[in-house]
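Practice problem: predict the structure.
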Amino acid sequence: MFGSVLSWAHFELDLMGLHELAAPRVERFVSALQKLEPTETTAAGWRHIVGAYRSGMFEDDPQRGLVHAESALAAFQLAGHPARELARVFIGLNAQALGAFGEAHEALQASRHADVGTVSSLRDFLRVFSLLESGEMERALRDALEMVERNRHRNPAERGRAHWAVGLTYLRLGDHRSAEREVETALANMGRWPAEHAAALLTRTTLWLATGTPERALPVIDEARRRIAELSAAGYRGSLLRFAPLRRAEVLHALGRHAEACAELGLARDRTRAVAARIEDGKYRDIFLTQEPFVRKIEQLAASWGVT
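Answer:
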C-alpha cells in the first residue's frame, strides 16, 4: 500500500507538470524503498515503476524506462502482486517509444482487462496508437470509441485522453470534420495534464496541415511550443521537445519558409540523435532509428529537403 499510494501521488504530480516539485519527493521515496527491499518483496517493484514512467514519459529515455518496467514486472511476479499489470503497461509505453511496436502490443494486450486506475486510459490510448501504426484502422476506431464510453464518468483529463484517441483515429481515416470535433473536445478537458494537452495541440496542428490550411496551424504550433517551453522550465525533458520542432518544420515548409523549416528540422534531428545515443542496447537503437514513426519522418524530410 505504501509503495502504491506514493507512486500514484508522484505520477499525478508529473502528469500535472510539477516536475520540480515531484523530483525531490521521488528521490526520497526511492531511497526509502531501497531500504525496504531486503524485507519487502514489492519495494523494488514500486521503485522500478517510478523509474519506468519517469524515464519513458518525462525524460525521453525509453530504453532505461523499459529496463525499469521489466524489472518491476519481475519483482511483482515474484511477489504474486497484481501491480504486474501496471508494469506491463509501462513495458508497452517504453517499447512503443523505442519503435518496438510488436513488443509493445504484446504487453499492452496482456494487461488489457486489468484495472490500473488512471493508467488504464493511458494503456488504452497506447493500444489505439499501436493499432494505427499497424494499419488496423477499423479496430483502432472501435477501441477508441469504446475508450470514450469507459471513461465517460472518470476525471475530465481521462475523458479528454479518450477523445484524443478518437480524434487521432479519424485524422488517419481522413475524416477531418470528426477529427476536429474530437480533438477540440480533448483539448477542452485535458488542461490538468499540460504535457498531454500540448501533445493534443500538435495533433490539432497536424489536422490543419492535412486540410491544407498551414496558416491556421502556425499559431497553434507556436502555442504548443510556448507551453512545452514552460514545461521544460519546470523540469520536463520528454519527447515533446523533439516532436514540436518536427511539426513546426512541416508548418513552416508548407508556408514556403524553407530556411526556417530546415532549422527546425535540424533541431528535431539533433534532439532525436541525442536520444538514440542514450540507447545502449544495439538492437533497440537500430529499431528506434529505423522503425519509430517520428524518427522515420525526420529522416525522410531531411533527405527530401537536403538537411545534412
